[in-house]
Amino acid sequence: MTDTPSPSVTIDHLRIALPEGADRPYAVDRVDFRLYPGKVLCVVGESGSGKSMSANALMGLLPEGVRVADGRIRLGDTDILAQDEEGMRGLRGRRMAMIFQEPMSALNPLMKIADQIAEVFEAHNLLRPAERRARALELLTEVGLPDPARAAASYPHQLSGGQRQRVVIAMALALEPEVLVADEPTTALDVTTQAQILELIRRLQVDHNMAVMFITHDFGVVAEIADHVAVMQLGRVVEEGPADTVLRNPQHAYTRKLIDAIPKLGAGRAEAPERPPLLTVEGVSKTYHLGGGLFAKSRKVEAVRDISVTLGRGETLGIVGESGSGKSSLGRCLVRLQDVSAGRIAIDGQDMTRLQGAELRALRRRVQMIFQDPFASLNPRIRVGRAIADGPIAYGTPVATAMAEAEALLERVGLPGTARRFPHEFSGGQRQRIGIARALALKPEVIVADEAVSALDVSIQAQVLDLLDELKRELGLSLIFITHDLRVAAQICDRVMVMQKGACVELGPGAQIFDAPAHAYTRSLIDAIPGRDWDQSAA
Amino acid sequence: MLRFLLGRLVKIVLILLAITVLNFCLIHMAPGDPALVMAGEAGDADPKFLAQLRTQFGLDQPFYVQLWAYVSHVLMGDLGYSYRQQMPVSTLILQRLPATLILSITAFALSLGLGVLAGVVAAARQGRWSDSLISAVALLFYATPLFWMALMAVLLFSVQLDWLPAFGYEQAASGLHGLARAFDIARHLVLPATTLGLFFMATYVRITRASMLEVNRLDFVKTARAKGLKPSVIQRRHVLRNAILPVVTLAGLHAGQLVGGAVLIETVFAWPGIGRLMFEALQSRDYNTLLGVFVVSSALVLLFNLITDILYRIVDPRIRAS
Fold it and tell me: What CATH superfamily is the domain A266-366+444-538?
């Protein structure tokens, strides 16, 4: 940078102390950041790297017990750390604003959208009530909501995740702040929605000449939006520089490791070899009836529509689609956590959709599931060894044998000697390994993995995927891999099925789907993958 | 909304019918009948007299005939006649209902208002001594048996300090009218209403405090802080409004329960309400009165549940959608 404008935010030697007993003394240890008007600084790192803490320190929103121990934060000429709570209150929303990761929970469920936006003006005693509402409507228009008037009168639950994120952005923009802090604002969104929100942030940031601090763990997103990048590891900045340089020529080993861990799109498998069929899905539909009662008519939702597909022995079949595409509903039908409305699902020719009682139980163990949320899918009060052994015990294995097998399985997934621990003693990645061990305990032939790695950091994700692949080959498993992440699907799947609104729009070998998508919807999904251009130039 | 109300009303009528039948069956399984008690009180256990009484009350009819007679009368709004009190059951209940309503509504409002307030204060001062004090007092009220607390209150405020009347609804034959009478009733109301309210208040304190702390951790509270809102506004508008939802659920359950009569409190304070009427009717095997009280209090419970559901739909827009 030749003629450097003065920075909007200067962070020098920032040190954030964690409460005693934490895994390390400082969440953030002597980091420096500069935010410039009209520029986006991406702070990249895995969970626990201190990137969110840095952002929260700037906003004065550190969690209780966590405090700035040392360093300086300046917003223009204002010393942030010297402000009392009232002083910070005057800055928040007005000179710096923040958008958050979870659009689903970032809005008060009991307040109308317009009121929540109007609150920003109210907080700073600006405008009269009628003007506030008028401005709220203008802001909703500016962030590209399709029907701003309707959105203004809505409650949050009546909007989609992408729409809610637009509302949060509108709130952040309300007072034209100099600085926008975005903490993983697109992580919880579908790929196409993510692309739209990224474009929106980019556009607004240029229009309003804002300095943006963008927190993310996704290098694809970095490639889309960053001017400048800082890579954080365990509270320290290990590498920083202009986005192009860091992305194309990473210097630090950790940066390289993170970039290498990203599944590559070009890695798709060219053709699927002929395999003997194991699981046959024929014309399966699933319709939900919502609401209804004595006088109310129920609403019909066709979650899955006439899906036919065959899973070969030893094959990995990917099912990709956005939220609401019906992929998880189909997954639950496959393990018969719910019944199909029409069609049949057969394993080795035996229809499992009509079975009941003992026959169903015998079949259940052949198809097992790995769930998405590694935190919610394990009972917090049951030791993990017992959680794994429960399945076999239910099928009549003696307790001692089942427990011994559970220990062996834990060792196999890389967690030896942990059978007597409780789930909260493990990290997200470790819990997902436990989930895998649990599914394997019944010696299934088919594993249905529903977004099994979506909640994990990219390097952990790579390890779990490797483990799955290894186990699959070792045990001759067949895998159905449900994901919204096309990169992951491209990397590990033999064949991929793309679902939209409950129906299959395209089915074929991975490489074909990604290199020569036939359906317009598949193309739009692939175009929306963040960092695709960078990906191709790097490949 | 209209459809919702209509559906609920039909369900309420059906449930009420089922409760009536069930209560009737249960009471007839109990040993003894009104004829036996009346004959015993008259000092004449002559089998002939007994049989005559039974014929008079229809007790000699087969069970299903009695059941049908009762249910069909209830359906037409007739709760029967109390032979002991020599007046229609509905008149009897209507006489006692105002006292119960005054007592329970006062206790309810008191417990809800103070409970939520104390819960909010405790949550705001989490971990400090005022929080510990509020929580400890709430636990004490919650754990102490109601009748004991009532007796102690009488001992302290009526016997020792002589501030308040110990029992009754109003001063008998005082000839007071208008405001003076209202004030007299209010003085009589203080002890029973407070004692009854304290127990429920304790649950509201605890649930409000827990709920406030939980909501405080939610993301939208951080959004509100990032807007630069004042902490007091955040607490009131964002946290309390969300935290109050579980309190509404619980309060709805309590409201029905309270209107059904607080037997213990009404007995200890000689409060002429439904609860005591029920107790007296039970002792004298006054089946018609007993069943009448059951029908009316069940109806009130169901009514209050309906009101709670309607309230819930108003405070939580998400319910309306589903």
Answer: P-loop containing nucleotide triphosphate hydrolases (3.40.50.300)
CA distances from B171 to A63, B94, B151, B174 (A): 59, 21, 20, 6
Residue B243 pLDDT greater than 90, yes or no: yes
When pLDDT is cut at 50, 70 and 90, the band that residue A299 belongs to is: confident
The pLDDT tens digits of the residues spanning A202-215 come to: 999 999 999 999 99
Which residues make Cβ contacts (< 8 Å) with residue B64, sequence separation at least 6? none
- Does residue A288 belong to the interface with chain B, where contact is any CB pair within 8 Å? no
CB A199 within 8 A of CB A167: no
B19-69: pLDDT as tens digits: 989 988 888 787 777 777 777 766 666 778 778 877 877 777 888 888 888
Indicate the residue of A94, A172, A294 with minimum beta-carbon distance to B7: A294
Say which range, A92-96, A331-335, A509-513, has the weakest mean pLDDT.
A509-513
pLDDT at A1: 47
Residue of chain B whose alpha carbon sits nearest to that of A121: B227
pLDDT in tens, B63-93: 888 888 888 888 887 888 887 778 888 888 8
Task: Yes or no: say if A519 and A526 are a contact pair by the CB < 8 Å rule.
Answer: no
Tokens standing for residue A485: 């992440």
Check CB contact under 8 Å for B7 and A107: no
Class of residue A469 by CB neighbours under 10 A (exposed 0-12, middle 13-18, buried 19+): middle
Whether the predicted interface score ipTM is above 0.85? no
In this structure, the number of other CB atoms found within 10 A of the CB of residue B243 comes to 25
Expressed in percent and rounded to 5, the helix, strand and coil fractions of chain A are: 40, 25, 35
* Res B322 pLDDT > 60: no
Mutate to test the interface with B, among A75, A91, A173, A294 (most CBs of B within 10 A): A294
**Helices A161-173 & A191-207 angle (0-180, nearest 10):** 10
- Distance, in Å, from the CA atom of A513 to the CA atom of A533, rounded to the nearest integer, reads 17
Q: Do B7 and A158 touch (CB under 8 A)?
A: no
First to last CA, chain B: 12
Residue A291, pLDDT score: 64
For B7-25, write each residue's pLDDT tens digit. Answer: 888 998 899 899 989 988 8
> What burial letters (b/e) apply to A490-516, b meaning 16+ CB within 10 Å?
bbbbbbbbbbbebbbbbbbbbbbbbee
From residue A470, how far is each of A318, A370, A492, B140, B147 by CA, in Å? 17, 16, 11, 60, 69
Q: Which of A474, A423, A483 is nearest to A448 (CA)?
A: A483
Report d(CA B274, CA B99) in Å as an integer: 8
Q: What residues does each domain of chain A span?
A: 104-176, 266-366+444-538
Q: How far apart are CA A348 and CA A327, in angstroms?
A: 23
Structural domains in chain B, sorted by start: 2-78 (no CATH), 93-321 (1.10.3720.10)
